[in-house]
Design goal:
Elements lengths: L8 H13 L8 H17 L11 H22 L3 H15 L2 H4 L4 H21 L1
Helix pairs in contact: 2-3
């Protein structure tokens, strides 16, 4: 895995926001941002439409990923969501829903079975709430 830079969410978020402010692009609706985020995610997915390996070079895929992340950060800013907290909270919920000991070392059909069991258990728990 490539070593990532030490930039924080706050630093990158500020860079994104400044880029938008400098162009008067800092007042979009949450709906517009959600649509744009989805469109950019689909552009990333398009690189894999007919192959398990991406069509295009790593730079092209990185640009699509950057678009997704930029729109996600902008959406978080407009909605007043702290992305780092949201990620931590979601991973905590995911760890409860999908305990590591149920998945670690499992592959193929065993992994699929464990996922389905966790999914059904979670769905059943939601019904009883």
């Amino acid at each position: 895995m490539k070593q990532q830079q030490d930039d924080t969410f706050a630093e990158i978020s500020h860079i994104v926001w400044q880029h938008l402010v400098d162009r008067d692009w800092d007042d979009p609706s949450p709906r517009s941002l959600a649509i744009s985020l989805s469109l950019e995610a689909n552009e990333l997915l398009e690189h894999y439409q007919w192959s398990d390996k991406p069509v295009g070079d790593k730079e092209a895929v990185a640009e699509e990923l950057a678009d997704v992340l930029i729109y996600a950060l902008q959406y978080a800013q407009v909605m007043g969501i702290d992305p780092a907290s949201a990620i931590r909270d979601k991973l905590e919920k995911s760890a409860q829903k999908y305990p590591a000991e149920k998945f670690k070392g499992k592959h193929g059909e065993d992994r699929s079975k464990a996922w389905l069991e966790a999914k059904l258990k979670h769905r059943d728990n939601k019904k009883t709430l």
